Amino acid sequence: MEDPRNKDPVMSGTSPDTSPSPSQPEIGQPELGTSSAIGRRLKAYYDDVASEPVPDRFLSLLDALDAAEAKRDGGN
């Protein structure tokens, strides 16, 4: 008589490959690529943020950092 636990993938420590192919979403699941509604909204939000000007305070900090690096590199 065969042990029924050997046929159960959970009991035998193995699992069948039931995952969907990476190129195809699961049936009933929406695709979450750049063409999805979520992807389009995230891209639009990112484009808005990326097009904003850099605040003057950040530019001043970057200039100070550049000056400190130039002074350090010139001193060695």
Number of DSSP strand runs: 0
Task: Outline the biggest β-sheet.
Answer: none
**Considering DSSP H and I runs of 4 or more, what fraction of the residues is helical?**
40-55%
Distance between the termini: 81 Å
Structure description:
With 76 residues, the protein is mostly helical. Helices cover 50% and strands 0% of the residues. The protein contains three helices and no strands.
Summarize this structure briefly.
This protein is mainly α and 76 residues long.
Question: Which features characterize this protein?
Answer:
0% strand; 76 residues; mainly alpha; 50% helix
Write the layout of secondary structure elements.
Elements: H1 9-12, H2 37-50, H3 56-75
